[in-house]
Structure formats: structure tokens, C-alpha cells
């Protein structure tokens, strides 16, 4: 079961039915989609995805997925799930644009790393970051991610596959 997590400023809470509009608004945002490396999709498709989280992902315990909250305000989305790019788990984080540049991305990733180590027993975790996403790449460098390889899509778009230990080796 996906646990509720807390960091200094954030609560990672499994989605509830009443969170659907927040989820849809985040994934309909053009900038969010751009930096997540995905195309904007119709609202109906996002609503179907949200219902799949509630109806399939949580009941079958497929992976951990949360809405991110700061002082009862929805600020973003996070996941830890198996990745098809390597034999491991990927950290996924997306913040709503009004919350960018406040250090929340770093806080989210640290929270996900703690969960990956303490609750899932993972020794390392991966991230996929668009080659043109300078802010996220800088954050990854600050946190200690190491570049593994570039993944090139059929359309030529490059994504950086990054890896990080879940715990500090010291």
C-alpha cells in the first residue's frame, strides 16, 4: 500500500477521488508536459489515467504514486516505479509551475530516495530528464545523480538516463 510520506514542507499523499481535477490540471499544463517529455493529451485521457491509478495501481499495488501537497495546496505529482529503460526503479516528479524555483523539486527527490531505501529496500534509483531541461539536470547534479546514457526517441528527442544511490555512501 502506498504510504503517506512527509518532508519538511510537503506531504506525499496517495490520490483520493476528490484530487482528480488537480491531477488533470497539472497534466494539461503545456510547460509541465514539455519538461516531462510527453505530449499533451486530451483531458478525457488524463481522467482515464487518474481512474486507473485509483482502480488498478493502488488495489494491485503496482507502484507508489502520490499527489504532493504543501499546506493543503496541491503542488505536484510523484512516483516510484519500475522503469523499462533499465532493470530498476525510476523516480518521477512533476511540480506545478507556480512552485518551481523554490527547492521543492529537490525536497521531492530526497523524499522519494528515502522511501526507496527505507520502504522498498532499493540500493539505487533512476531518473529520466530531458536533455534540454537545464534546471532539472542541475538539480540532479547537486543531488549526486550520475549520467548513465542518452536515450533517443524516434523523433530524435534526447533524454538523459541518470542513476543515484538511495543512501549516502558515507
From TrEMBL:
Domain N-acetyltransferase as annotated: residue spans: 10-167
Family annotation (Gene3D superfamilies): 3.40.630.30
Superkingdom of the source species: Bacteria
Signal peptide: none
InterPro entries according to UniProt: Acyl_CoA_acyltransferase (IPR016181), GNAT_dom (IPR000182), N-acetyltransferase (IPR051531)
PANTHER family named among the record's database cross-references: GNAT FAMILY, PUTATIVE (AFU_ORTHOLOGUE AFUA_3G00765)-RELATED-RELATED, N-ACETYLTRANSFERASE DOMAIN-CONTAINING PROTEIN
Protein name stated in the entry: GNAT family N-acetyltransferase
Originating species: Streptomyces galbus
Amino acid at each position: 500500500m502506498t504510504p503517506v510520506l512527509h518532508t519538511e514542507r510537503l506531504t506525499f499523499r496517495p490520490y483520493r477521488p476528490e484530487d482528480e481535477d488537480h491531477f488533470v490540471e497539472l497534466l494539461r499544463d503545456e510547460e509541465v508536459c514539455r519538461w516531462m517529455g510527453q505530449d499533451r493529451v486530451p483531458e478525457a485521457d488524463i481522467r482515464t489515467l487518474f481512474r486507473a491509478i485509483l482502480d488498478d495501481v493502488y488495489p494491485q499495488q503496482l507502484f507508489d504514486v502520490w499527489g504532493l501537497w504543501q499546506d493543503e495546496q496541491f503542488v505536484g505529482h510523484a512516483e516510484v516505479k519500475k522503469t523499462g529503460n533499465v532493470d530498476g526503479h525510476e523516480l518521477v516528479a512533476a511540480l506545478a509551475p507556480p512552485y518551481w524555483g523554490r527547492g521543492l523539486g529537490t525536497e521531492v527527490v530526497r523524499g522519494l530516495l528515502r522511501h526507496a531505501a527505507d520502504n522498498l529496500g532499493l540500493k539505487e534509483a533512476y531518473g529520466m530528464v530531458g536533455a534540454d531541461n537545464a534546471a532539472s539536470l542541475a538539480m540532479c547534479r547537486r543531488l549526486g545523480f550520475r549520467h548513465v546514457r542518452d536515450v533517443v526517441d524516434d523523433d530524435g528527442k534526447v533524454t538523459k538516463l541518470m542513476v543515484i544511490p538511495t543512501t549516502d555512501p558515507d
